Amino acid sequence: MAETCLNIGLVAHDAMKATLLDWVTRNKSILEKHRFCATGTTWKVLTDIHRDMKIERLKSGPMGGDQQLGARICEGKLDVLIFFQDPMTAQPHDVDVKALVRMSTLYDIPLACNPATADLIITNPAFAHPAR
Ligand SMILES: O=C(CO)COP(=O)(O)O
């Protein structure tokens, strides 16, 4: 991970949105040094509470937002993906979810599917001391 301001994607399936909101709230002081984008409904949940956070709004996941994130990864425009997936519910856009995870794997982007992994990623020094 480069020691600079990072481009971070934030995404959560519906059953995991409260978990993502809680994670962002807990880590806000570290996170606010970086740049964000989020899929549509995730964006709304986050910005309703954190009105001061600048987060670029993408399409909703099932409407192409996951694919927008995948495109950013292959264009070198996303450094980290925080993507809390619902392990209990089949998603109608599962092919998009798989494509996004595949792009993260292919381009070796740090990908957190749960808060424990997200916590490990943000303890990387690049998060605490971005060069900007
Ligand atoms: O479906 C998603 C990820 O696969 C997330 O999309 P929303 O943030 O629009 O709910």
TrEMBL record:
<comment type="similarity">
    <text>Belongs to the methylglyoxal synthase family.</text>
</comment>
<feature type="binding site">
    <location>
        <position position="93"/>
    </location>
    <ligand>
        <name>substrate</name>
    </ligand>
</feature>
<feature type="binding site">
    <location>
        <position position="17"/>
    </location>
    <ligand>
        <name>substrate</name>
    </ligand>
</feature>
<dbReference type="InterPro" id="IPR018148">
    <property type="entry name" value="Methylglyoxal_synth_AS"/>
</dbReference>
<feature type="active site" description="Proton donor/acceptor">
    <location>
        <position position="66"/>
    </location>
</feature>
<dbReference type="InterPro" id="IPR004363">
    <property type="entry name" value="Methylgl_synth"/>
</dbReference>
<protein>
    <recommendedName>
        <fullName>Methylglyoxal synthase</fullName>
        <ecNumber>4.2.3.3</ecNumber>
    </recommendedName>
</protein>
<comment type="function">
    <text>Catalyzes the formation of methylglyoxal from dihydroxyacetone phosphate.</text>
</comment>
<dbReference type="Pfam" id="PF02142">
    <property type="entry name" value="MGS"/>
</dbReference>
<keyword id="KW-0456">Lyase</keyword>
<feature type="binding site">
    <location>
        <begin position="60"/>
        <end position="61"/>
    </location>
    <ligand>
        <name>substrate</name>
    </ligand>
</feature>
<dbReference type="InterPro" id="IPR036914">
    <property type="entry name" value="MGS-like_dom_sf"/>
</dbReference>
<dbReference type="GO" id="GO:0008929">
    <property type="term" value="F:methylglyoxal synthase activity"/>
</dbReference>
<feature type="binding site">
    <location>
        <begin position="39"/>
        <end position="42"/>
    </location>
    <ligand>
        <name>substrate</name>
    </ligand>
</feature>
<feature type="binding site">
    <location>
        <position position="13"/>
    </location>
    <ligand>
        <name>substrate</name>
    </ligand>
</feature>
<dbReference type="GO" id="GO:0019242">
    <property type="term" value="P:methylglyoxal biosynthetic process"/>
</dbReference>
<feature type="domain" description="MGS-like">
    <location>
        <begin position="1"/>
        <end position="132"/>
    </location>
</feature>
<dbReference type="InterPro" id="IPR011607">
    <property type="entry name" value="MGS-like_dom"/>
</dbReference>
<dbReference type="GO" id="GO:0005829">
    <property type="term" value="C:cytosol"/>
</dbReference>
